[in-house]
Design brief:
This protein is mainly alpha-helical and 103 residues long. Helix content is 36%, strand content 6%. The protein has a domain at 2-60: Arc Repressor Mutant, subunit A (Orthogonal Bundle), CATH 1.10.10.10. Strands 1-2 form a two-stranded antiparallel sheet.
């Protein structure tokens, strides 16, 4: 979003200027550009006719971002499983105590 909003506000700009303007680290900018280019939201000016150079400006294509994917986490049991850890440490699990009335 920082990449797209920066390009929308300031217009086409080369990668090195975009990094400073969007306040993204080099790694974040690389990931954002890769994703945005794969989705067709951002492109190098003149692409695909001309090979991209370091000073080639990046432009918005006008294509909207696709909706975020919904990822459902795998179902997990709600009870913790400590037995493998206890086995690795050689600790025996105490037997369940019968519940009685306190006198």
């Amino acid at each position: 979003m920082a990449l797209i909003s920066t390009l929308r506000a300031k217009g086409p700009m080369p990668r090195h200027s975009l990094a400073a303007a969007s306040r993204l680290s080099a790694a974040e900018l690389t990931r954002a550009l890769k994703s945005a280019r794969q989705m067709g939201v951002v492109a190098y000016a003149g692409e695909p006719e001309l090979p991209a150079q370091a000073d080639t400006p990046l432009v918005l294509t006008g294509r909207p971002l696709p909706p975020p994917r919904r990822v459902t986490p795998p179902a997990r049991e709600s009870t913790p499983h400590f037995q493998p850890l206890l086995d690795a440490w050689g600790i025996a699990r105490p037997a369940a105590r019968p519940r009685g009335h306190a006198s």
